[in-house]
Amino acid sequence: MLEQLFGSQTRVRLLQIFLSNPEEKYFVRELTRNLNSQINAIRRELENLEDLGAIRIVEEVGEHKSQNKKFYQSNLDFILYHELKSIFQKAQFLLEKKFAKAVKKIGKVHFLALTGTFVGKKDVPIDIIAVGSMSKKKFAKLIKEFQKNLKRELNYTLLDKEEFDYRRSVADRFLYNILDSDKIVLIDEIFNPIKEE
User: Fold this and answer.
1) For residue range 53-99, what is the model confidence (pLDDT) as tens digits?
2) pTM, to two decimals
3) What is the CATH number of the domain that holds 47?
4) Which domain covers residue 14, as residue numbers?
5) Based on the domain organization, do 184 and 97 belong to the same domain?
6) What are the residues whose beta carbons fall under 8 Å from the beta carbon of 190, sequence distance 6 or more?
């Protein structure tokens, strides 16, 4: 959807990186590796985004001029910064809703939440936690499709209800770190079950 709107997959993927991490500075080769793309395509799109004003060049000065490095960073003063960020967030929200709907179709889901990169927390070891009775193979296939749409890799944990309950009962640190961190809850029949009327 965003590729059609912005006319270039590379441009969209770069914008996703810059808008998701506005404080981060990136150099060309790092972006080339992250996006697994041709360096010339990355340079061309960085130039386009800089000309537009969406990103800016930040130079880090070394002891010698040859050690100076050119980095790129989101331009928070760009007049359309907030509008752009909003478009990307809404597009991601649509993908998240579609993902939750697809997960419901492959089995019984008690809990599904997005954390980690979805909420800007790099210290959380996973991006998705799912609790339910579903085929691991089918769930992995959905994750693969979701990654493809988001243009980034995701770490996830799939637990059945019994394992989830056991881990909660023994105050499993891994589980509680995830449950206590910021998250986007897509399905919750554990903590906020829907009451039958």
Assistant:
1) 999 999 876 666 556 688 999 999 999 999 999 998 888 888 899 99
2) 0.73
3) 1.10.10.10
4) 2-79
5) yes
6) 110, 111, 131, 164
